[in-house]
Design brief:
Length: about 130
Amino acid sequence: GFPTNRASLHIEQEESKIRDALLASGLTIEGIPTSLCGEYRMVSTSQWVLDRAREEKAMIAKHQKSQSTVKPNMEGTITKPCATGKRARTDEERRTANAIHSRRKRERRQLELQAIRQEHDKSAREN
């Protein structure tokens, strides 16, 4: 078998038996992948990930534009705008950046897990 986030799937059983066990544990048929005789397809998830990536790129571009407000003063040193009222905004920007980082990390993990699953399926077919 191979580990997932919270479960370990063992391939010694037929897909229909694994599906039945997942149904018995409370999952719905819509949440079980088609590889296990369910109805869940990665196509909608892939589209969601692409949409989120576009939104996050737009947020990053907006964030980078807002960071360009630092200007040199008459002596040539760099001064930042007054921090009053800006603290909440920078905290919100930090939370947004952390959320974007977490989503990308989760997406990378999902892609790695999918690659492992595909390699497993390929080796299972060859053997």
